[in-house]
Specification:
With 156 residues, this protein is of the alpha+beta class. It is 42% helix and 17% strand. A hairpin with a 5-residue loop joins β1 and β2. The termini are far apart. Mean pLDDT is 86; it is low at 143-148.
Length: 156
């Protein structure tokens, strides 16, 4: 019997992370440079404290327009109401969370420590591999080609 795929089997471990005290404009540059839509925010002990995302960046843009904010820290704009999972969360539960929430990424925690992250795309990739239809076997192709040959040969 196959064991279920867990977050630990699928998660990305090498992550771009930000700190709460990082300048918000520098953090936006990090997201743009790495072509990512968001990053986990961790403290000096790798404790997860939130996510800074493109949505957070929109709040920076709006506040800058209204307040003329020259600079601030990531902590002022990060989302602290994030859904997180553990390494033991199974693939189906993860897919259900993504289906039911607007979150695009799920930080994977061991207690309060960030150990990885899963995105919607990671789940799609895993599901696609699991649901991949096996290719016809060579013997099946030989059987089909024999039927075609028999059908094309004259009866006599």
């Amino acid at each position: 019997m196959n064991k279920p795929l867990l977050a630990r089997d699928l998660m990305v471990k090498k992550l771009v992370t930000l700190t709460p005290s990082m300048d918000v404009h520098r953090a936006i540059g990090v997201l743009l440079k790495n072509k990512i839509s968001g990053a986990p925010v961790i403290d000096e002990n790798r404790n997860f404290v939130g996510v800074f995302s493109e949505k957070s960046c929109m709040r920076v843009v709006i506040e800058a327009a209204y307040e003329g904010l020259p600079s601030n820290t990531v902590e002022a704009f990060m989302d602290t109401q994030c859904r997180t999972i553990t390494e033991e969360t199974d693939l189906l539960s993860i897919a259900q969370i993504f289906a039911d929430t607007p979150f695009r990424r799920l930080p994977v925690l061991d207690g309060t420590k960030l150990v990885g992250q899963l995105s919607r795309r990671d789940v799609l990739r895993a599901a696609h591999e699991l649901l991949d239809v096996p290719k016809p076997s060579e013997s099946g192709l030989l059987y089909l080609s024999a039927l075609v040959e028999r059908h094309e040969s004259p009866i006599g």
